[in-house]
């Protein structure tokens, strides 16, 4: 990667943020949503969701760098994260 | 970032591997050593080596504790097993329990006892294999939480590097059977692929389960959502434990002899007794728990549940027999148990342990050759220009993290034998030697030009590791030519592995030091050239 153009550099930086921070947000939201939503006893749901969380994170990172465009990379992480966040808000304790 | 999926994955693989690669080498190497942390600790305490278990061992332990800890709140006797020849005696002194510094349960006082003679042994002060084991997941001398997060981030990078590495390779298995030695970058690439594919399931398992071990720290959001932030409630449900808090001590009372009780428990479960715990020793309400070794099932719970019998201390009456049982676990709970048990090798099969050890070596080699590949590729692209500062820095860091760390570990073992046994702060000095040697190798690696530096460091670790068994011979009575080393196996094994690894470093030295073959024209600098498997 010796002759990175500025646009490419920006794309790499943006995807890196999407992968590291966006990926973590997505896996955290998905873990919370699965813990609340999986049709099994509470403790099993939490363990299942937490065990899967790192797989979700890993896939999100791969996604962020595999997409053809930076916008699609972000969309593929942000939209599911927001959906999971909404689920947590709906299913969560009414506080 | 344009280009095919394989190209973007090759790029991701290169950079996720390089950025934390130095740390990952250290994590892999120290983690590999941790499979034998008990054996390393034993090797580093030669004062314990002559202890041999006999029929009187249980009685001797009982008498010794009665002499040195008669009014303790509790006793805990760990009897010798295949991996440990001496008896460990622990007790909680009378009085209020003091919380230990740095968290964790207060383990009270402890001494070692010779299983044959009953005399209290005072081994030289050392952190043994425990230092390397701790370094593996929390480094040394930095705040524990920060270190653990840093290592977990590196582990996540490792996971990404593994997945992207697999995607990069369309010819995974063809690459595995390709080895072209003595061809510079090509050889490093082949070595990298071979060590990666050879133990790929192991690498994936060890990385993923490493994250699972810190699941609650890294990913508490599921617990917080389902339990409304009450983590204690989750733990109580997930890992139910009978936590009886012992009541106050009763009046003084003599206890029955331990020998017959231990014999009864051993006969009941048809196994030698491994552990004896006593609550309120020498009191009316003394309770004696006698446990035998448990067969660890790979999907089982991680703690407790050994076959145990509980006796009333003053009368010797049997109160309870606890049969081994496996706590029912949901499928994913079992998956969690299997993964973490595999990571920690919580089963005593020596053959499997050795296979894991070699897989760990393969993993270390995989990370190390990946780092070397990065430098090798960019060195070839230079086409006779002088390498820049960045390349020199990466090369120096590579040296320190690979040969430097091996020198530091070898020096740590040598220091254990060569420092005076009664030296004050002895265990700290062993660790200081470790870090000073590591630092020296970094300075040397940054100052010496590329190939010469590697040759010198490889020469140092070859001599050092091959010398360890001879240093052992000069300083102890439990070396390769003694009965004690072979009676325990672990000690002979330690010296043999030192010889084996020393030979391996020597072979590497020979390969690197050989005069270079004709300088080939550097390969066309293609981006990225990492995945090009065609010669």
UniProtKB/TrEMBL annotation, chain B:
Pfam families: PepSY_TM (PF03929). Keywords: Membrane, Transmembrane, Transmembrane helix. InterPro entries: PepSY-ass_TM. The chain crosses the membrane at residues 146-167, 196-223, 354-375, 396-415, 427-447, 454-471, 491-510. Coiled coil: none annotated. PANTHER family: IRON-REGULATED INNER MEMBRANE PROTEIN-RELATED, PEPSY DOMAIN-CONTAINING PROTEIN. This is Membrane protein, putative. It comes from Alcanivorax dieselolei (strain DSM 16502 / CGMCC 1.3690 / MCCC 1A00001 / B-5).
